[in-house]
Design a protein that fits this description.
This is phenylalanine--tRNA ligase. With 592 residues, the protein is α+β, with helices and mostly antiparallel strands. 26% of the residues lie in helices and 27% in strands. The strands form 6 sheets. Strands 4, 5, 6, 7, 8, 11, 12, 13, 14, 15 and 16 form an 11-stranded mixed beta sheet that branches. Strands 20-23-24-28-27-26-25 form a 7-stranded mixed beta sheet, with helices on both faces. A hairpin with a 5-residue loop joins β15 and β16 (298-301). α1 crosses α4, α9 packs across α10 and α11 (394-408) crosses α13 (509-522).
């Protein structure tokens, strides 16, 4: 989880109270965050430079390092942290954020060109008017951008934030994508004019910015934002222009977020403006900006609207395990910045209409509301109890029954990796390349390239690594394989398989055939003549991983559900197994 460093004295000033370290640690725990470390600015600098510890008498301001949930973006700065703790402590009401009432014709406008769709297609904007910065507020404003870039923005790949002194630029603005040789400007903290391609080379030696260059450097066009006088505001996601840099004297801040993910761009923009609108002349008010795309569609940002969620009281108390009156639940939700109004559904069930503010983008489901109630109530206050017995899923029950049957036949269960190499499910099994396998993107090792489509490689690898073990080796595994499936919403499907392997000098077809009969009889299925769909039977198969003439397919109710037989000598050689092996693999789910 991200850690936020804040000055203790400034935090206590914002909270309006002074705490001992133990008292503040307790407050953090009650709110669901953690005081991770207490240090000083000089101690942090010494640690970064790997210097030895010195005397602590004059180490400067005390710094609190506070660990916050990864999805609580409103807690990534002192302003949001102090506001949340004050509301939790009952010192402040929940703020109401408003978008300034400005007609579309009077709004600042950002015009988006068609070419941006090739690299970063979205942009959202807003204006903070009449901001009052001091050094601490300014540093917090910059720090919040950095923390968002590292967190939800995924190191600027999804969203990049640009902030500008609005008084130095003039709208309407344009968001374009141009060849790098056509973009020229003076970047932030520089005095020399650079072309965009020259800038890429220049920043390859910059420790902070070089890690972002890969996002756009191989693209034929770079994103760029201009004002009406063709002054460059920024080259997202790399650097802003020096012309519009904000300072302590800045009064009006123009914020733009370019993105490949519009949802995250809106969350980032809302976080920036809600956290720092408290310093505006009109507190908690944000000026909107119209964004017009090349197809003529226009949108107004930011969207600070509150959305409502219906959550039954029984759902909340059922999850927490504590029966709470409705007034108590509403009060607890208020402490977590959620307004709740009681309502009665058509079936007379008491529920809450929970209003989720723009600062709480982490609240997506009623379970998030229940979690907030549990935090505000106090996890230590929830009585301990034994959970009610849960009925296992039919597939899990069946898996346990199959395990018992095979174990009673003298086989030992093993657990192997669900990931394997491509060759282990293809060439090492005498098979063509398996196009039904789910491939691991950017695999870090050749051993884990795909998700297994069979349990066979894992069991053979286990025997190959234990070939000196006394014979016979009798092992089995019950586990999932994964197959590509275009009809499934995630593009793949899990199937539960069972596989068994017998390795020994006298390993034969009849040994594994006997295990097949035991499994099927344990399932209450009778052996029938071929073509009969009331039970199971076997027929000749041509699976290349097995020896020709010593293998069979298992047919259950007219469907092929598995194969068994003697493993082909070439396959044994690939896995460095000197002894003959017989093998069985069935699709268990077909038996349910």
């Amino acid at each position: 989880m991200p850690t936020v460093s804040v000055g203790r004295d400034r935090l206590f000033e914002a909270l309006g109270s002074t705490y001992s370290d133990e008292e503040f640690d307790e407050l953090c725990f009650k709110f669901g965050i953690e005081l991770d470390d207490i240090t000083t600015e000089k101690a942090i600098q010494r640690k970064e430079k790997h210097l030895e510890e010195e005397g602590m008498e004059d180490d400067g301001e005390t710094i609190y390092k506070i660990e916050v949930p990864a999805n609580r973006y409103d807690l990534l700065c002192l302003e949001g942290l102090a506001q949340a703790l004050r509301i939790f402590s009952g010192l402040d009401p929940i703020p109401t954020y408003e978008v300034a009432n400005i007609g579309k014709d009077s709004m600042l406008e950002m015009r988006v060109k068609t070419e941006t769709s090739k690299i970063r297609p979205y942009v959202v904007c807003a204006v903070l008017r009449g901001v009052t910065f001091d050094e601490a507020r300014y540093n917090s404003f910059i720090d919040l951008q950095d923390r968002l870039h590292q967190n939800i923005c995924r190191r600027r790949t999804l969203v990049a934030i640009g902030t500008h002194d609005l008084d130095t630029i003039e709208g309407p603005f344009t968001y374009e994508a141009l060849p790098p040789s056509e973009i020229s400007f003076v970047p932030l903290k520089q005095t020399k004019n650079f072309r965009a391609d020259e800038l890429m080379e220049f920043y390859k030696s910059d420790l902070k910015l070089k890690k972002f260059l890969h996002i756009i450097e191989n693209s034929p066009v770079y994103p760029v934002i201009y004002d009406c006088k063709r002054t460059v505001l920024s080259l997202p996601p790399i650097i802003n222009g020096a012309h519009s840099a904000i300072s302590l004297e800045t009064k009006n801040v123009f914020i733009e977020c370019t993105a490949t993910d519009l949802t995250k761009a809106n969350i980032v923009l809302n976080t920036m403006v809600t956290m720092f609108s408290m310093y505006c002349e009109r507190k908690f008010e944000v000026e909107p900006v119209k964004v017009t795309y090349s197809d003529g569609k226009s949108f107004v940002y930011p969207d600070l609207s509150i959305y409502n969620m219906n959550v039954p009281l029984s759902y909340i108390t059922g999850i927490i395990g504590v029966q709470l009156p409705e007034d108590k639940v509403a009060s607890l939700l208020h402490k977590m910045q959620l307004c709740a109004e009681k309502s009665v559904s058509e079936d007379k069930e008491l529920k809450f209409v929970v209003s989720v503010p723009p600062t709480r983008s982490d609240v997506l489901h009623p379970c998030d509301v229940a979690e907030d109630v549990a935090i505000a109530y106090g996890y230590n206050e929830i009585p301990k109890r034994k959970p009610a017995s849960l009925k296992p899923l039919p597939l899990s029950q069946f898996s346990d029954l199959i395990r018992t049957e095979i174990a009673m036949a003298g086989f030992t269960e093993v657990l192997t990796w669900i990931l394997c190499s491509k060759k282990e499910i293809s060439s090492m099994l005498n098979r063509e390349e398996d196009n039904s396998a789910a491939i691991i993107a950017d695999s870090r090792t050749s051993e884990f390239e795909v998700v297994r489509t069979s349990l066979m490689p894992g069991l053979l690898r286990t025997v190959g690594h234990n070939k000196d073990h006394p014979k016979p080796i009798k092992i089995f595994e019950v586990g999932d394989i994964v197959l590509l499936d275009g009809t499934n919403d995630v593009g793949a499907v899990n199937r539960r398989h069972v596989a068994a392997l017998y390795c020994g000098a006298n390993s034969g077809f009849e040994l594994i055939h006997g295990l097949v009969d035991k499994i099927m009889e344990g399932n209450g299925t009778n052996f029938v003549s071929p073509g009969n769909s009331t039970g199971y039977y076997i027929e000749r198969s041509e699976e290349p991983a097995f020896l020709q003439g010593r293998q069979a397919s298992l047919i259950y109710k007219g469907n092929r559900i598995g194969t068994f037989g003697i493993v082909h000598p070439q396959v044994l050689k690939e896995f460095d197994i000197p002894d003959p092996c017989s093998f069985l693999e069935l699709d268990m789910q077909s038996l349910l």
